[in-house]
Amino acid sequence: MKLLQEKIQAEGIVLSDQVLKVDSFLNHQIDPQLMLAIGKEFVSRFAQDQITKVLTIESSGIAPAIMTAMLLNVPLLFARKQKSLTLQNNVYVEQVHSFTKQVTNEITVSKKFLEEGDKVLIIDDFLAHGEAAFGLAKIVRQAGAEVAGIGIVIEKSFQNGRAKLDDAGFRVESLARIKSLTDGQVRFVEDSAVLTAEGNGSHA
Ligand code: G4P
């Protein structure tokens, strides 16, 4: 998605060869117009799939997911990482380990909101090792529902999450696919566009 790649080029900060900071539009401050465009793009890719629910994980998945759900006219459901005071029993639970943050979260979704027959579109902001996506997919399957596909805003293609999801047979649609973050530069899979650490985009 060209608009997203341009935003990453303009505002993304390469923190290391593993981590890209995008807190000006996705992970802290949020750009609503960009989120709407992202929602439209996901809808165009999954329009034929009779989605009944969008599922994400708090917190940064919620912004792109709500736009997608709104345009599909279906509910958005988000998995919680913190135990809710009011949500204690009757929940689906999965362990999600974050390699990036070196923590394991127990994610929960109320059984009330996912049911057999649901066709679920999973949305997340980043795909790194695939742990969050797999955890969400397992919850969908616990409910006897179907994963129609997985929509990712930024995929770090040099990490193993995409390959693992492909191998498991999931349909994955990523709007920006990053080939590498070496030398302070973002290189995309499709077009080898390059971003310098200072953010003044150039092309390789
Ligand atoms: P995985 O789910 O694909 O295995 O990813 P991983 O465990 O490595 O990542 C865990 C958290 O770190 C996720 O956020 C993910 O979005 C974020 N993350 C991974 N790589 C990057 C990166 O290069 N840049 C940024 N900005 N974030 C990255 P989270 O813990 O769920 O946080 P949040 O959704 O509450 O913001």
From TrEMBL:
Functional pathway: Purine metabolism; XMP biosynthesis via salvage pathway; XMP from xanthine: step 1/1
Keyword line: Cytoplasm, Glycosyltransferase, Purine salvage, Transferase
Catalysed reaction, written as an equation: XMP + diphosphate = xanthine + 5-phospho-alpha-D-ribose 1-diphosphate
Molecular functions (GO terms): xanthine phosphoribosyltransferase activity
Subcellular location, principal: cytoplasm
Binding site for 5-phospho-alpha-D-ribose 1-diphosphate: 128-132
Transferase listed as a keyword: yes
Record localization: Cytoplasm
Its EC number(s): 2.4.2.22
Domain of life: Bacteria
InterPro entries: PRTase-like, PRTase_dom, Pur/Pyrimidine_PRTase, Xanthine_PRibTrfase
Domain Phosphoribosyltransferase span(s) in chain numbering: 47-157
CDD domains named in the record: PRTases_typeI (cd06223)
Binding site for xanthine: 20, 27, 156
Functional description taken from the UniProt entry: Converts the preformed base xanthine, a product of nucleic acid breakdown, to xanthosine 5'-monophosphate (XMP), so it can be reused for RNA or DNA synthesis.
Family: Belongs to the purine/pyrimidine phosphoribosyltransferase family. Xpt subfamily.
Quaternary structure and partners: Homodimer.
Name of the protein in question: Xanthine phosphoribosyltransferase
Source species of the chain: Paenibacillus residui
